[in-house]
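Weekly modeling sync, notes
Attendees: S.R. (lead), two postdocs, one rotation student

Agenda item 3: backlog of single-chain predictions. S.R. asked that every request posted to the team notebook include the full sequence so nobody has to chase files. The rotation student volunteered to paste the first one in as an example of the format we agreed on. Action items at the bottom.

Example entry:
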Amino acid sequence: MSVVRTQVPRWLVGLLAAGCVGCAGPTEPPPVPSGGTEAELDFARFVQDVAPILAAQGCAAAGCHGGGIRGTYALSPAEAPDAGFDFDQTVLQVNPVDAFASPILAEPLAESAGGTPHQHEPFATADDEDYLAILAWIEAGTP
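Predicted structure, as returned to the notebook:
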């Protein structure tokens, strides 16, 4: 019986060995980056203090934010309120770094008082009682 010997080029052996390093098996994913600011807003306080303001101002009306998305803010329709949904949607309108820049405050505030353009401006000034109630809710939940 004869044995045929072949010589495998060294570069091929090195390449195969290097390729197996990546095959060592799964590892844990890297940790999620940290350092961001996140609000921890209170649901019960939202229901007690903020939701009544939104209802009184007509924000959940079909022509505004209720019953479908209007811009980036949707609320449950006035005829079928869902406090959990409204809370989740309102939290998205909060800027945890700068409460005053939160769309939930800046958009309904009159432009003459420093607000941003919006169809409905129920807060003539930043001293409005309802404006201050929403601000207090945000500040209580932000670092």
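Discussion: group reviewed the output briefly. The mean pLDDT is 81.
Action items: rotation student to repeat for the remaining queue; S.R. to check formatting next week.
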